[in-house]
Amino acid sequence: MDKAKLDNSFREDLSSQLLAKTLIN
C-alpha cells in the first residue's frame, strides 16, 4: 500500500472515531 492511501485511510479512521465520539456525547 502506498503512503497516500495509508494516510487517507488513517484520516478517515480518525474522523470516523471523532464522529462516533460526538454522536455518543
TrEMBL record:
It comes from Candidatus Synechococcus spongiarum. This is Uncharacterized protein.
